[in-house]
Amino acid sequence: MPRVVSVYFPFLPTDRIRRHGKDGVPADQPLVVIAKSGSKRWISAADSNARKLGLHIGMPASKAQAMVSTLVVVDADPTADAAALERLALWALRQYSPAVAVDGTDGIVMDTEGADHLQGGEERLISGLVNMLRARGLTARAAVADTWGAAHALARLTSAETTVVPIGDVAKAVVGLPIHCLRLAPDTVHSLRVMGIETVGELSALPRAPLTLRFGPEPGRRLDQLFGRVAEPIEPLRTLELVEVSRNFQEPIGAAETIAKYVLRLVNQLTAKLEQRGLGVRRSDLVIHRVDNTRQSLRAGLAKPVRDPARLSKLLCDRIEKIDPGYGIERMVLVAIMAEPLEEKQIASSLIEEQVVDVTPLVDILGNRGQRLYRVTPVASDVPERSVARIGPTIEETGATWAAKWPRPSRLLPHPEEIEVIAVLPDQPPAVFTWRGKRRRVKRADGPERIFGEWWTTPLEMRAVRDYFVVEDETGERYWVFRAGDGLDVATGSHKWFLHGVFG
């Protein structure tokens, strides 16, 4: 079943001006965008600061300036807003989904069927998307539902940053929404409200024939799209720089063997085009057009640029069982959504030196099955939990090493866990400690290794101290524990004890 994500940008014009304006606007200063028509000037967009002061869209510009003396006023530029929205759609196309389109003047919409596993599921996909946009100075709200209409409505009418409607629960989620969420003409919405119709549930309960006779087919069509009775396919955004090949079928196909045969042919055509441009594919989308006017997409991601037809075909053909041909497939499109320059490298002779095994094909296979692959790399920090970071599985070695002279545990806990300790003196290693409900007696201890806080990271660590000990219990298990503070001055830490790692 298709799953649609709608992303709504409530402050897109003002966010764009703050990000790309020639003269920076202070974050705490109210900002409005003014539209003009003849001698009339009114607010077409206002940021959150301006709205808190009582300004709203449609208010005359002169009244707004009289109300707020510090108001920053910028002329509207719909062309720049549309270009910014298209750039956002292209970014989402490369990062999140094979099918992304601009949704009106304030949002984008994408079908994530077959691609959400690459982001760790729907919850992680939309929360990561919203957080990434926030880091770039853009306010966004996102909703996931079975239909475009439901996702569009919930993203704009709920205050939550992210909303996920479970599969099959669209009716329950939208029945109480106001009728203007149906993307109907304002005159139609006004006429329905005059009749006393305020919610989607009330409108859907009306007999269809009189409704169509009075208002035409549009209200019924929008209701059917909202509830998923009628398909509303997303026409993917395409640009000239994208490398794309396609195949139309006079007779619809549906057998897995036939699909695999034509996938291989499309891959050969795509790689030939990529070779002409000196490119390799990093992310490719296979879009299936079915005879019932619905689409299905498969996305294959690669760790490095690739132009090997056999390798790319395997990634796509391994997931053919996920394709539902329905009543038949009438068109297949293969697009290199993300392509990068590919340098040809000469393979060394095995008679001269040992050939290095390339593990990127295995990384690609596991990654396209939804596995989250990474390596760890050293980071210049004395604080243990900051001294390691996750990087991509195929990123080249940086040459950095851990500088610690003391032994480090093979397993470092994600967060230090507090333990109960009995020690002879406050600044001595534990004699007995209790961790996860089990009491352990210490037979041997080594330390302390003193680690100071990184005051340049946060002022709270100006005087922070940790004293680490390697302790061994009566069963021979070895643990890495520390005391927060130097054991004397409470300003250096709470003097509580924590277990931070386990030695293998």
From TrEMBL:
What are the residue boundaries of the UmuC domain, all occurrences included? 29-152
Keyword hit for 4Fe-4S: no
Tell me the domain of life: Bacteria
Q: Where is the DNA polymerase Y-family little finger domain?
A: 245-343
Q: So which cofactors does this thing need?
A: Mg(2+)
Q: What does this protein do?
A: Poorly processive, error-prone DNA polymerase involved in untargeted mutagenesis. Copies undamaged DNA at stalled replication forks, which arise in vivo from mismatched or misaligned primer ends. These misaligned primers can be extended by PolIV. Exhibits no 3'-5' exonuclease (proofreading) activity. May be involved in translesional synthesis, in conjunction with the beta clamp from PolIII.
Question: Subunit structure, briefly?
Answer: Monomer.
Q: Which family does it belong to?
A: Belongs to the DNA polymerase type-Y family.
Name the record gives this protein: DNA-directed DNA polymerase
What organism is recorded for this protein? Rhizobium mesosinicum
